[in-house]
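Consortium newsletter contribution from the modelling node. Members have asked for a concrete example of what our holo predictions look like. Here is one, prepared for the iron/sulfur cluster complex that several groups have been discussing at recent meetings.
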Amino acid sequence: MRGWIDQDLCTGEDLCTDHCPELFVLLEDGISYVHLGDLIGNDPGGASSTISIPAQHEPNAIAAALDCPGECIFIEPDGREPCPPRTSTNPL
Ligand code: SF4
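And here is the predicted structure:
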């Protein structure tokens, strides 16, 4: 999974860092960013604004996205787990 934050929507309430400080950081500008160690996704809208979420942090990242008041945390599959094709025997 990969994660990013739309900083234009972030309200800076810092709930994400409560859920998972290993992935989210509130910077001096009062807005949160995704990070992985020293690597900060600080290019809003750019390719480098996303980070790869380590598997052990995926549940907390999803919980943060669900609780985010700005609805601005986005968690996306990174291609490791492609969806099976939709067929007549697999309608999902
Ligand atoms: S929980 Fe959402 S709105 Fe609040 S600081 Fe984190 S990203 Fe921003």
